[in-house]
Amino acid sequence: MADIKGVLVDITRCVNCESCVVACRLYNGLEEGKNGAKETQAEKDKLVSNRWTVVQKVKVEKNGNAVRRYVKQQCLHCLEPACASACFSKALQKTPEGPVVYNEKLCVGCRYCFIACPFEIPTYEWDKSFPRVQKCQMCLARVADNQMPACASVCPTSAITFGKREDLLKEAKSRIAANPALYVDHIYGEKEAGGTSWLYLSDVPFEQLGFNTKVTHRPIPDYTWQVLKWTPYIFVGWGALLTGMYMYTKRRAEVHAEEEMYAPVDKEE
Amino acid sequence: MQDSKSGLNEKKTMDRRSFFKKMIAGAGLVGMAGSLAGCLQQSPEQAGGQGWLPYQYNVAGNLPAQVRGRVPIDADNPSIVRDDQKCILCGQCLEVCENIESVYGYYSLPVIDETICVNCGQCSMACPSGAISERDDTKKVFEVLEDPDKFVLVQTAPATRVALGEEFGLPVGTWVEGKQVAALRRLGFDAVLDTNFSADLTIMEEATELVKRITGEVKKPLPQFTSCSPGWVKFCEYFYPELIPNLSTCKSPQQMFGALAKTYYAKKRGIDPNKIVSVSIMPCTAKKFEAQRPEMNDSAKYWKTDNMRDVDIVLTTRELARMLKAKNIDLPSLPDENYDSIMGEDTGAAIIFGATGGVMEAAVRTAYYLITGNEPPELFLNLTPVRGLAGVKEAAAEIPGVGTVRVAVCHGMANGRKVLDAVRDGKAPWHFVEFMNCPGGCIAGGGQPRTAVPPSDAVREQRIAAIYRADAAAAKRKSHQNEEVAALYREFLEHPMSELAEELLHTDYQSRADKLNRLLSRVG
To answer: Which residues in chain B touch residue A105, judged by CB atoms under 8 angstroms apart?
Structure first.
């Protein structure tokens, strides 16, 4: 856990060049959609199966002035991912380095991960005969090699910083401390959903930028664990109960049969 | 009988033991075939184990080894567009935007509410994969050309005629003025006119303004800045709004032409101004932005209507070449033709607008005449100190009556900053400064053919040489000699900076300081 890698996105530094979006597509070999040029801005701002990261353009008010902010969106790589806990075929897993990765060989296509994810990240290849779930893999091979993810490697304004999550948290806190007039005192991802590998800094409140700030601070798999931890007891207990009932009814039937056999014949017949 | 019967029965029924044997044998066969075909081969990585990596993410993908990112370009940028599928993140656009134009990186983050861009299109010239290009407006022009109701006139900038030929395999700097006129006629334009006409007009207005500033008749600060490069004008509005009073109020030649096309030209030719579609062929992507500036509708104010723009559609040299190729017009094989009259005459002074230092030289020639009433001496026709590709050029000229007039010329906004900082600090000795957004001037504008990528000084020099050759060969080399401009003043505007001239040919500027937090001094 101490070695877990993360990425810090400083929204105040983003200029909307979308280098990260292109880098992601190039590195992961994602194909541009058929009608890429005809897409509207709203469509381009949406995560789809061949676009694992987008830069959303958000118009917000700051100190009474209209400002534009650019929000890079991708999988946040939760420390305790709900998607992985919901995946019964182990197609989604948290790696020790930090990335939450998907193995298409194990996926059965149930899309429980869609329902589990509090950030609505996973996407599906709806137009394919054998569709896969698709989402940011945090450039696993690079991260395992202690290299930056592709998107971070290309950011010209250093809005995306890669490092150990612990160090990034310190860095984020020092940035807030150094410029409290600029930043809101909130590191998104520090506590959300039990903590995420990706962290965000912003100068406008996160809920105005479309972040889910109502998400629980408890790891989501905790909730299911509260129920699921009883599984062995229920399994054994229920078995024992049913066995007992079976023994009881069987014995009763035997007793009943014996009684009938030896009962006196009705004389009135 | 009994035996055979029992034999038949034996074949029909299968006992459990033989069924089991056959099933095992069958499964073995399937397994053997499967292993041979490779279907059941175990993949080397162990799914779910320690250090598990899905195989597809171990591939490096197509990300180049050297990536630097790119400049931000808004989807609604009127001048340039980018094709994300072609971008290789090489960072050449950053290089030119930051180091040549000093735009990217000269404002502090966070941004405010727009992407800072002066629309110059130099990034499109540096982009090695052709991902960045001009916003294509050729379709709009094809549509209006097919509309018989419209009178489509076209103006061509000074610099396109030394570069258009390169798109058709002609040597760099080939003079194709006559062929360009012929090609535009073949495309179906109703009138082929010349921006050089309004370049001469610009000189008349701008030189008059300069003289009035020097004599104190106009209470505006010196040095006066040229205002014909729309990229530079927007740069000034962004980064040096306190120097806006120094900017000449003259519109650029394109916009002067546009305002006159729907007023003077329409009246003189007896055409309904509402039916005129004004197209311009420019070496410049920023002209697309300039034509869309809300205040550039003085013809509408003149006729007191709405829905009238001075210039309707701006095409770059590259777009014109595309149109010609789409219509199978082979430029090199066309005959040389002349511009239509009126608003088609030019002088050598207008031609050199296309090169860095040209506006200055043209203005000085006419300023001399306006001040002294005499034709300038030969020296003024070869003002070599302001020619060439040095970043900042200075010259001083003795003009009887006012003494020494000091001028400066700079091109590329990183060079412009040196001059601007000196002016802001009150250390500027100059009376008149020419600014060109693009290095080399309009001949190397963001809409010119991509003959060398990134643009090379060799190409710039050859195009500039062609410009000055044409000036030297011109019969008239001073803007005040332009007969059509003189007629315009006689019949319509009365005199330079008259009330009507102020209304149609002059403009004002807006500070864009609230759009960015500029970095006044930048380290590095």
So the answer is: 43, 47, 54
In this predicted complex, what is the ipTM? Answer: 0.84
- Classify residue B370: in a domain, yes or no: yes
pLDDT at B462 over 60: yes
Contact B84 A67 (CB under 8 A): no
Q: Is the pLDDT of residue A160 over 50?
A: yes
Same domain flag for B195 and B283 = yes
Give the pLDDT confidence score for residue A3 in this predicted structure. 83
Query: What is the domain extent for residue A246?
Result: 230-262
The interface residues of chain A toward chain B in range 63-122, judged by CB-CB distance below 8 A, are 65-69, 90, 93, 95, 101-106
pLDDT of residue A204: 95
Q: Measured between CA atoms, how close is B455 to chain A, in angstroms?
A: 23
pLDDT at A21 over 90: yes
Specify which residues B316 forms β-bridges with.
B282
The CATH number that applies at residue B112 is: 3.30.70
Cβ of B84 under 8 Å from any chain A Cβ? yes
Check residue B46 and give its pLDDT.
40
> Across chain B, what does the average pLDDT equal?
90
**Same domain? A79 vs A138:** yes
CA distance A28 to chain B (A): 5
Residue B45 has pLDDT above 50, yes or no: no
Give the position of tokens 């009246």: B267
Please indicate, yes or no, whether residues B94 and B162 belong to a single structural domain of this protein.
Answer: no
Identify from A60, A97, A103, A108 which residue to disrupt to test chain B contact, counting B C-beta atoms within 10 A and taking the largest count.
A103
User: A41 touching B, CB under 8 A?
Assistant: yes
Confirm whether B443 is domain-assigned.
yes
Closest residue to B89, CB basis, from A22, A95, A140: A22
Chain B neighbors of A93, CB-CB under 8 A: 48, 52
| Backbone Cα Rg of chain B | 33
Collapsed DSSP state (helix, strand, coil) of residue B434: strand
**B333 in reach of chain A (CB within 8 A):** no
Separation of alpha carbons B106 and A36, rounded Å: 32
Q: What is the mean pLDDT of residues A235-250?
A: 95
CB-CB under 8 Å, A18 with B72: yes
Q: Tokens representing B496?
A: 């330079």
If one counts the domains in chain B, the total is 2
- Within 196-215 of A, beta carbons closer than 8 Å to B belong to 203
**Model confidence pLDDT, tens digit, residues B154-198:** 999 999 999 999 999 999 999 999 999 999 999 999 999 999 999
Please state the rounded mean pLDDT for residues A230-255.
94
Instruction: Using a CB–CB cutoff of 8 Å, tell me whether B115 touches chain A.
Output: yes
The B432-436 sheet, strands edge to edge:
B224-225, B432-436, B403-411, B392-399
- Mutate one of A3, A22, A87, A135 to test the B interface: name it (highest B CB count within 10 A): A22
By residue range, what is the domain housing residue B317?
A: 138-508
- Residue A31 has a pLDDT of 79
A43 φ/ψ sector (left φ>0, alpha ψ -120 to 50, else beta): alpha
Average pLDDT, chain A: 90
Helix orientation angle between B317-326 and B138-146, rounded to the nearest 10 degrees: 50
Report CB contact under 8 Å: A140, B48.
no
**Are both A94 and A112 inside the same structural domain?**
yes
Task: Please state the pTM of the whole predicted model.
Answer: 0.87
Are residues B123 and B132 in contact, defined by beta-carbon separation less than 8 angstroms? Answer: yes
| CA distance, residue A243 to nearest chain B CA (Å) | 33
User: Inter-chain contact A15–B83, Cβ cutoff 8 Å?
Assistant: no
Residues B146 and B129 in one domain: no
* Spatial separation of the C-alpha atoms in residues A88 and A178, rounded to whole Å: 45
pLDDT category of residue B65 using cuts at 50, 70 and 90: confident
The pLDDT value given to residue B1: 46
Is the per-residue pLDDT at B6 higher than 90? no
CATH classification of the domain holding B198: 3.40.50.1780
Q: Does A136 touch chain B (CB under 8 A)?
A: no
**Total domains, chain A:** 2
The residue behind tokens 């998400």 is A215
DSSP string, B53-119: --GGGGS-TT--SS--------TT-SSEEE-TTT-----HHHHIIIIIS--TTSEESSP-SS-----
Q: Are residues A213 and A240 in the same domain?
A: no
pLDDT exceeds cutoff 60 at B510: yes
Same domain (yes/no): A102, A200: yes
